[in-house]
């Protein structure tokens, strides 16, 4: 049985990703900053007959929490096959380049960039023991500098200096990580789930969590011939999914 860790997974897209992975027979660690919320989420999934799910306390902005999660999972298994860095925040308002505060940037980057790095570095040793390790960094087409430079891009006028730049930074980390692991069995990709109706955006998005989850786990379960070091947004490119950085 393959194993996976999903961060920020007690609700919304992360929760749906856990559900779909569990439905496919993967043993999933449901990462939640608040353990009680995580346990409540697991209870819901077990009520659906999904017993291969376990909650783990994981605050990706806290070094000690990440270390403890790594220790706990390492006690239970020697190998981790899939890491999905899903946890993210928007960063509050305003998001104008001239009005956003340095504190806003720091808080957003601590989750969207540093949190991804913390978790990836903490679990890389377990991932390296997998015959088919997969890392999916949940991104956003909003982090594409190319798209946001194109007036024809559907979200061209939806600018936000804090959130957009944090996702751009995370995307570059994805590129470099994939490059460093290019001679291994790793597949490392950034995936945009699409503009989805969740708490994250006040339920304004038109997409469903079910479709968002499918888009993410697709790249968590790719075979040895699958892509690596790529950026995918099926919302913006329904044909191949790949979008420019």
Automatic annotation (TrEMBL):
Keywords attached to this entry: NADP, Oxidoreductase
Ranges annotated as spanning the membrane: none
Similarity-based family: Belongs to the short-chain dehydrogenases/reductases (SDR) family.
Domain of life where this protein originates: Bacteria
InterPro entries: CBR1-like, NAD(P)-bd_dom_sf, SDR_fam
Organism: Chitinophaga filiformis (Myxococcus filiformis)
Protein name: NAD(P)-dependent dehydrogenase, short-chain alcohol dehydrogenase family
GO molecular function (one): oxidoreductase activity, acting on the CH-OH group of donors, NAD or NADP as acceptor
Record SUPFAM superfamilies: NAD(P)-binding Rossmann-fold domains
Gene3D superfamilies (alphabetical): NAD(P)-binding Rossmann-like Domain
């Amino acid at each position: 049985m393959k194993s996976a860790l999903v961060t920020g997974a007690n609700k919304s897209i992360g929760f749906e990703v856990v559900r779909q992975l569990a439905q496919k027979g993967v043993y999933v660690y449901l990462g939640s900053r608040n353990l009680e919320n995580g346990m409540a989420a697991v209870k819901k999934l077990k009520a659906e007959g999904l017993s291969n799910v376990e909650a783990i306390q994981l605050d990706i902005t806290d070094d000690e929490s990440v270390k403890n999660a790594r220790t706990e999972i390492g006690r239970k298994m020697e190998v981790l096959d899939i890491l999905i860095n899903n946890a993210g925040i928007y960063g509050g308002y305003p998001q104008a380049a001239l009005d956003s505060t340095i504190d806003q940037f720091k808080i957003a980057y601590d989750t969207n960039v540093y949190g991804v790095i913390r978790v990836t570095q903490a679990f890389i040793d377990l991932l390296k023991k997998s015959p088919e390790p997969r890392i999916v960094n949940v991104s956003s087409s909003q982090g594409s500098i190319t798209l946001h430079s194109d007036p024809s891009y559907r979200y061209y006028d939806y600018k936000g200096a804090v959130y957009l730049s944090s996702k751009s930074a995370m995307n570059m980390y994805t590129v470099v990580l994939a490059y460093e692991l290019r001679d291994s069995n790793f597949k490392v990709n950034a995936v945009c789930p699409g503009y989805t109706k969740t708490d994250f955006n006040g339920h304004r998005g038109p997409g469903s969590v079910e479709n968002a989850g499918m888009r993410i786990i697709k790249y968590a379960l790719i075979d040895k011939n699958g892509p690596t070091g790529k950026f995918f947004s099926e919302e913006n490119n329904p044909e191949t999914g790949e979008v420019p950085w």
